[in-house]
Design a protein that fits this description.
The chain has 19 helices and twelve strands. The chain is an alpha+beta fold. The strands form three sheets. Strands 4-3-7-6-5 form a five-stranded antiparallel sheet. It has a five-stranded mixed sheet with strand order 9-10-8-11-12, with helices on both faces. Strand 9 and strand 10 form a beta hairpin. The protein is elongated, with a radius of gyration of 40 Å.
Length: 517
């Protein structure tokens, strides 16, 4: 039932050292971070106490009960370490109860699953006793939820250690404390992982209490003796003062209470002259009241010729209104200019992708895309849709007689006429060699014929010269018109109907407008 071995010593030493640390920490109850440190010590005491009792017994049932007792403390160790890091970094012992509840939610679920493990095996599987070199240890395979818990705990430990490391690295005076807060969780973590891994040379023995004992010694010497808890993080000079981003602290009355050199340079005022001055006198944006009241957390503003992204963070609050707000200004002028230039390039590329290079009209791809869109709209309603298809009469003769350069000039003239005649909502496009089309939304047959006749007459009035300036033959166009509404079948064939009407005009003698059946 009872065993006395040297393997109980690590847990006993951890209890003594952590108990001493708790006694010292409790003397500084008014210092930020102490409450979290107290709960951290209590959690470790429960964990180590359970380990100590477990190392003394050889009964499987009692050992299972003690294992659950250990978890009452162990599941919250990482949460308390993270809580301590946040409290120290923010210099306040008043941590949001919601935040603490969120941090402790998963460990609490783990604890509940631990006490009900016999029903599901999510924490341990196949727990049993094993004897190794005369020591009877308790061994179990980790369950699926246990793995989730381990990942969560180590994530919190890494994050907390990173926060403390950042805060302490800002000052050369805290080098010893920096080493301590990195070494303590590292030693405990390594020994804990060794206990959980197949490489454990003593199955059933948990090396974690040994890690606690070493960590307590390191933290006692590096944190308590160095006066870390009594010291304020020296980050203003090393971080805030040297930031390229401007930082301004504004009180509830809209007056500047503090700012860094970057902000002073941005607004062009001496540091001393800005204090207790109205922020609105320097930050000339109508968005400032919203940023100070908490209605907006960020905004982009322009000050002079520079653009800034402003982030507003309440530092303290009374009821629903912040008492102080930190405004962080980041110069985004180059980024905004680059984005504007990129948008221009994108629009230009899209325009080139949708434009015929010779005439400047829409190309066939863009015309078909718009035709599909308008056809879908017509199917859902009753508004009609008309399409014109037209080309130059005897255009091949012009190319053969005067050359392709003159032929291209003819196409450009026709394109300019199409742009002049079309309405704002209409789409004029070159869909083939000398073939053009015009999309007329919300236009019935009568309206389409009227516009087509005007287009035909205007084309016929154009005077086009050859390469020597001599007028060439009069250019005429034949035009086919097709009109459909949502009640018509075969709406997708409207372009081919217009094309058939064009051939009717050609067969009828050219230079005329014909409609589809």
């Amino acid at each position: 039932m009872v065993q006395l071995t040297i393997w109980s010593l690590p847990s006993l030493i951890a209890l003594i050292l952590v108990g001493h640390t708790l006694h010292r920490v409790r003397k500084h109850r008014d210092i930020p971070g102490v409450t979290a440190m107290i709960w951290l010590c209590i959690s470790v005491l429960v964990w180590s106490g359970g380990q100590l009792l477990g190392s003394l017994v050889t009964d499987a049932g009692i050992r299972m009960t003690l294992a659950k007792l250990e978890y009452s403390g162990s599941v919250y160790v990482a949460t308390c370490w993270f809580w301590f890091a946040l409290s120290y970094a923010r210099r306040t012992d008043r941590t949001s109860p919601r935040l603490l509840a969120a941090l402790a939610a998963l460990p609490t679920v783990t604890l509940l699953l631990t006490f009900s493990n016999e029903w599901h095996g999510l924490i341990w599987q196949s727990p049993h006793l094993e004897t190794h070199n005369g020591y009877v240890g308790w061994v179990a395979e980790p369950g699926s939820w246990f793995k989730i818990h381990i990942v969560y705990c180590y994530g919190l430990v890494f994050a907390a250690t990173g926060i403390l490391g950042f805060e302490l690295s800002a000052s050369q005076h805290h080098h010893k404390a920096l080493v301590a807060v990195i070494a303590a969780p590292s030693m405990t973590g390594i020994l804990n992982l060794l206990s959980l891994s197949p490489l454990n040379p003593f199955p059933g023995f948990d090396f974690t209490p040994l890690g606690f004992a070493l960590s307590a010694l390191v933290l006692h010497d590096g944190v308590l003796r160095s006066g870390l808890l009594e010291a304020t993080p020296v980050v203003r000079h090393h971080v805030v003062e040297q930031l390229s981003d401007g930082i301004i602290i504004v009180d509830r009355n809209g007056r500047i209470t503090d700012l860094n050199p970057a902000a002073a340079a941005t607004f062009g005022i001496p540091l001393e002259a800005s204090l207790k001055q109205r922020a609105i006198d320097y930050i000339t944006t109508p968005l400032l009241p919203d940023l100070l009241s908490g209605r907006r957390q960020s905004a982009e503003i322009t000050l002079g010729a520079r653009a800034h992204h402003v982030a507003a963070t309440p530092l303290s609050s009374d009821a629903d209104r912040p008492l102080e707000v930190a405004l962080v200004f980041r110069d985004i002028t180059e980024r905004r200019d680059a984005e504007t230039q990129l948008k221009k390039i994108k629009l230009e590329m899209e325009r080139y992708a949708h434009t015929d290079s010779l005439t400047g009209l829409a190309n066939r791809r863009f015309f078909m895309q718009r035709l599909t869109e308008e056809s879908e709209r017509v199917r859902r309603g009753t508004a009609p849709l008309s399409v014109l298809v037209f080309d130059m009469d005897l255009f091949k003769r012009i190319n053969d007689t005067h050359g392709h350069a003159v032929g291209d000039r003819v196409l450009q003239v026709i394109a300019s006429v199409a742009l002049e005649v079309k309405r704002v909502a209409d789409v004029a496009a070159r869909i083939g060699g000398e073939e053009f089309a015009m999309l007329l939304p919300d236009t019935d047959q009568a309206g389409a014929i009227k516009l087509a006749q005007r287009l035909r007459r205007t084309i016929g009035e154009q005077l086009i010269a050859d390469a020597h300036g001599r007028p060439i033959q009069r250019v005429t166009a034949s035009i086919g018109v097709a009109t459909m509404s949502g009640t018509d079948r075969g709406l997708e064939n409207i372009l081919s109907h217009a094309d058939q009407a064009l051939y009717k005009a050609k067969d009828a003698g050219r230079n005329m407008v014909c409609t589809a059946q």
